[in-house]
Design brief:
This protein is an alpha+beta fold. It has helices at about 20-30, 55-60, 70-80, 105-110, 140-145, 185-199, and strands at about 10-15, 40-50, 65-70, 90, 95, 100, 115-120, 130, 150-155, 165, 175-180. The strands form 3 sheets. Strands 1-2-11-7-3 form a 5-stranded antiparallel sheet, sandwiched between helices. Strands 6-10-9-8 form a 4-stranded mixed sheet, covered by helices on one side. A two-stranded antiparallel ribbon has the order 4-5. The chain is globular.
Length: about 200
């Protein structure tokens, strides 16, 4: 069932006749590079009103539209408060940052029943640290303060098989659409596999 709205964030479900619904479904399909065409499909979509980029996000040049996949238990809190709470919890391939992706198929592998489509201020290409090898030691101090970059972008290379974007300041990203998927994402099965290994 749809997540309940309880705050100043307004969630507007897109009707079948809303052109934005068609655009979102097309965007999911166009950005699916590795999975079958019927795997990453939207059952329902909500437009999110009330989230804003912070000062760093507003002054970081052009904005990119990206995907964010996460456990279901994170979704309601992100819709209510944005990404700040999860910045430290997102210790992924490129350290303590928000791991985003321009590929719907990549986000599908990291989610359960919902996907978020977000607007992210990643900076110009020269303002992004480009990597082809995982570096889980990265954080805001290293990438932004020491090296002077606005974000990290990863491309398929020696140890990476996906396109990724990482920001280390939550004000650089805001959720724009919530997508309820037709099929459950692959994170559920990754969790089950990990539980079986520990059993």
């Amino acid at each position: 069932e749809a997540l309940a709205a309880r705050s100043k964030i307004e969630r507007v479900e897109l009707s079948p006749t809303d052109g934005r619904l068609k655009d979102v479904r097309k965007f999911l399909r166009r950005r699916n590079a590795t999975l079958g065409g019927d795997e990453v499909r939207a059952q329902r979509v909500w437009f999110l009103k009330g989230h804003f980029l912070g000062p760093r996000g507003l002054t970081s040049g052009p904005k990119d539209t990206v995907f964010f996949g996460c456990p279901d238990e994170w979704v309601e809190r992100i819709l209510e408060s944005g990404f700040n709470e999860f910045l430290e919890q997102e210790a992924g391939d490129f350290g303590k940052g928000l791991h985003l992706t321009p590929q719907s198929c990549t986000a599908f592998k990291e989610t359960e029943n919902f996907l978020l489509i977000c607007e992210a201020a990643l900076g110009k290409d020269v303002e992004r640290l480009t990597l082809e090898v995982r570096n889980p030691s990265l954080d805001y101090a290293e990438v932004c303060q020491k090296q002077g970059y606005l974000s990290v972008q990863c491309r398929p290379g020696r140890s990476i098989d996906y396109q990724g974007r990482v920001v280390y300041d939550a004000s650089q990203c805001k959720p724009v659409y919530l997508v309820k998927l037709e099929r459950t994402g692959l994170l559920k099965y990754k969790k089950l596999f990990q539980e079986q290994k520990l059993a």
